[in-house]
Amino acid sequence: MSVDQIRTPRATIAWLSTEATAFDAARSQFAKAGYRLLEGEEAADAELAVVDFRNRRVTAKAASRLAALMRRKTPECGIVYIAPPFLGAAERAHLRRSGDLVLCEDDLRGVVETCRQRLRIRNIAEESGERLKTIAALSRLSDFPPIEASSEAPSVLVAGPPGPAALAALAAAERTSARCAGVLSAGQAIRALETNIFDCAVFLPTTDSDALAGLARAMRRHRRLRDTPVLIVAENEGLRAKLAPYWGADALLLDHVCDDLGPRLAASTRRARLLAAMRRFLTACSGDNVRDRLSGAFTPQFFGQHGARVFARGAQTGRADSLIAIRLAPLAAVEAGGTRLLVEAARLINRVTRAEDCVGRLTSDSFVVLLAATPLEDAAAAARRIEGVIANTMFRSRSGDTPFGVATAAAVVARAENGGLEETIAAALVKLSTAKPRTAER
């Protein structure tokens, strides 16, 4: 694989705090995750705001004033609040009205994870809107499901060992849920979730290495269960602090369950339903001269129009956009596989990439993937994943009798400053011509 070594931040985040030392410590933790942190006065182009209430008193007036100030600076992704774990129930509820709330002390990994989730939701929502604009600009017949979320009360699964914590979680969940059920182990939880009747789950792990914590992490990468929100309830602050780096705002203290669990379940379910609806739209968006019916790859006309729109948006906002060019080799194997090989390869690329990524045919043996708001390092990781999946997949010849494998070469380029789609594709093709194909791993 060929890739330039260019380091660009994943996003720019505004930081507002009363202590200068807090900003210095936070900047290093956000930099490790690839984010650029700027102080509130300097963050004119920030994509998300983080407001630190750890060393100041939380009042409704102060929170409303700061929320209005940061909304003007970061209107796209909203606000993430940081507060100490001993914050009162009324203050917690007030802050959650205008943003996400993460309870922590010095370890900000949970805040970073919450910011990552908010930015991912922003990217999916923005790509949904841009694709609608492209379809409207092309004036083509299109077919896609409506983006709508149900307003029904959620059905909740509570999983954890029997005891006061499980009883408290069940009692709090029943107040806002249409159906509430309890199980005792991770095995029972996965069997219950596979019935597809639960909108969200509440897990009560006893340690940070508990099977329930592992199941919750695995659900994020499961194709069917990734849209099921999971809230983690910890019995004490020590356990919650260990779980917070992975769960952020979704890690709750047992003492807060009675006041916070019901509203958090309702809010998490609404957000998850909307996110699932946008993913369905992005996956199913098709129509005349929009997407190839067999492979799912976008047509050159749609890809060119949409790519130009995405690049113009990136130049306007200063975000990093990347492009992956993929070539199947050798050419004799591609010709032997014919259309069937190209269709199956396009399907694999669509399955491996995210819903918001745009996949199109480039030449007779190559494809191109547009990754909006994605820095070069993340695009390179996606390219390696695509290379590995295709190189280790056995295809069938036109007759369907002989299985064979193909090598895959990939090149990754980033959009240059004020660069256009044509120039970026040309640069990708130049790099692709010298990229070494990757073969199956033995």
Please give a structural write-up.
Helix 7 (211-219) links the parallel strand 10 (200-203) and strand 11. The chain has 442 residues and is an alpha/beta fold. The longest helix has 30 residues, at 109-138. The protein is globular, with a radius of gyration of 24 Å. The chain starts with a strand and ends in an 8-residue tail after the last helix. The strands form five sheets. A five-stranded mixed beta sheet has the order 1-19-14-16-15, sandwiched between helices. Strands 3-2-4-5-6 form a five-stranded parallel beta sheet, with helices on both faces. A five-stranded parallel beta sheet has the order 9-8-10-11-12, sandwiched between helices. The protein folds into three domains: 2-120, Rossmann fold; 155-283, Rossmann fold, CATH 3.40.50; 286-434, Reverse transcriptase/Diguanylate cyclase domain (Alpha-Beta Plaits), CATH 3.30.70. Helices cover 46% and strands 19% of the residues.
